[in-house]
Each structure stands twice: as C-alpha cells, then as structure tokens.
Design a protein that fits this description.
Helix 3 (137-144) crosses helix 4 (195-207). The N and C termini lie far apart (45 Å). Strands 1, 2, 3, 4, 5, 6, 7, 8, 9 and 10 form a ten-stranded mixed sheet that branches. This protein has two domains: 2-104, 2-Layer Sandwich (Alpha-Beta Plaits), CATH 3.30.70.580; 107-239, 2-Layer Sandwich (Alpha-Beta Plaits). The protein has helices spanning 27-39, 72-82, 137-144, 195-207, 215-222, 255-258, 260-267; strands spanning 2-9, 46-47, 56-65, 87-95, 107-116, 129-131, 149-152, 167-178, 181-188, 237-243. The protein is an alpha+beta fold and 268 residues long. It is built from seven helices and ten strands.
Length: 268
C-alpha cells in the first residue's frame, strides 16, 4: 500500500532534507530510519519539496510504499516515539497508488519570517531572520507585485539549480508586518533552488532603501543570477503548505498554523 504523511521539523540542526553521505544528519535520513523500524523493512520516502540546511517545515508532505499492515495511528505513534525531538509526524493516511507527494502537488507555500528591530532575540534565534536596520513594508509590497505571475526566474534561483526550466508561476506574494515581525508569504506551482531566499534578499534590500522599488522587476528581467541580490539566511524560512487535488483527501494545514510564530511573539 502507499502511505502519505504530514511531517513537521525544525531544520536548525539538519543538513537539509535529502539523504547525503553517512554521518550527515538529514530529515529524510531520520524519517526513513524510524519508518523502516516500524515497517520492519527498508523504507524510502518521496517529499513534496526538498528543503535546505536550516529551513523548517510546518507541513512537509511525503509518501512511501510498504507491505506492512499498520493502522494510521500506529505509523504516527510508532515513528514519533523513535524520532528525535526536532522532527515528528503530524498524521498518516493510506492513499491511492497513483498519488505522488511531489508530482501530484498543485501548489506549494512558503513563509519567510523577519525580526525587524535593533536587537536580536534569544528566544527566536535560528527561527527568524534578524534584520536590525528598519524595513519599509510598503516599499517591499510594491516591489513584490513585479514578481507575481508566470516568469523566467533565472535571476532568483541558485547558480547550481538543476531544474530543467526556470519558469515558475508565483500565485501570490504577500508582505505583512506584525509589530517587530515581517512575514513574506509565497505560493507558487513550484519553487526553484534558493528562489524564496533570493526573493527575500531582494525585498529586504528594497525595504532598507538600498535599492529602488523597481529593482525587483529589473532583476527578474535580466534573467541572470549574478545580477541579483544576496541570498537571505535560511533561519526564517518555513515550508508551510502543499495543495493537492481533492480526490486524494490530503489533510490541509490550518491557516492558523501559518501565523503561529507571529502570534506567539505578540502574545509574549
């Protein structure tokens, strides 16, 4: 049978999602080890979107195939009892054999959180990106409009990105301020390597007044990564949601979860 899972993790102490050489700690490696013990056979998982070192996930979606007969509850409880504290399963469910966490996804969401104040936060270290100089959210919003839609995002992807095409559809890019916190919410059909962090880097430079509002569109039109801004740190980046056709009945991340970080800080 094929099983889909919702996975939550703090990426601070992981070297990204994807399994690498022995001794390198990854989310995929920890998850496959725990699933293999519960299934009593080797398990390999496929995810909706690979994340880099230091990037977090509110709801990463994965699938795997197994001959083991387990209740959904047992997959969750069994794996969570064996996983380290910085990664856990949210849910499990049997899905049709044609479901793919990667290829069935219709869109993906990321949130990028910025702490914008003069002093850093000990409580939010490695969970937000700290920018000490003041950022103008209105300038950032104006710049973001040039990126919405279907574009060649060559200027916003890593030089080593291996995607066959640089064309992506950015459905939405919202910029919101919550007191000292700024949140970028991006939704696209798919994302290129470092695309969100490169967009964040450009918007931060514009918000700080280092570049004009038109710079985001200028960079896009050049289709040249060397003409873009710096890549923003991974600390504030969260893979937050994946959308699938309703036929697969994949649980959706509640919208309240997307703003949990801002709410927690404001309540504090």
């Amino acid at each position: 049978m094929r099983i889909a899972l919702g996975v939550e993790y703090d990426g601070s102490r992981f070297c990204g999602w994807q399994v690498q050489q022995p001794g390198i700690r990854t989310v995929q490696g920890e998850l496959e080890a725990a699933l293999s013990r519960v299934a009593n056979h080797p398990v390999r998982v496929t995810c909706a979107g690979r994340t880099d070192t230091g990037v977090h996930a509110l709801s990463q979606i994965v699938h795997f195939d197994t001959s083991a007969q387990r209740e959904a509850r047992n997959w969750v409880l069994g794996c969570n009892s064996d996983l380290p504290e910085d990664v856990n399963l949210l849910w499990a469910r049997e899905v049709p054999a044609d479901f793919s966490a990667r290829f069935a996804a219709q869109s993906r969401h990321y949130h990028y959180w910025i702490l914008n104040r003069s002093v850093r936060s000990s409580l939010l270290a490695r969970r937000v990106t700290w920018i000490h100089r003041p950022l103008d959210v209105e300038r950032m919003r104006g710049a973001a409009q040039a990126l919405i839609g279907e574009h060649d995002f060559s200027s916003y992807r890593a030089l080593g990105c291996q995607a066959k095409s640089p064309v992506r559809i950015l459905h939405q890019l919202h910029v919101r301020r919550y007191d000292d916190l700024i949140c970028l919410h991006l939704q696209a059909n798919a994302f290129l390597h470092h695309m969100v962090r490169n967009i964040a880097g450009v918007l931060i430079a514009i918000g700080a007044g280092e570049q004009p509002v038109t710079w985001a569109g200028d960079v896009l039109r050049k289709r040249d990564r060397t003409q873009g801004g710096v890549t923003a740190p991974p600390d504030g980046l969260y893979f937050s949601r994946v959308e699938y056709p309703e036929v697969f009945q994949i649980p959706s991340t509640p919208s309240t979860h997307h703003d949990w970080l801002g709410g927690a800080l404001l309540r504090g």
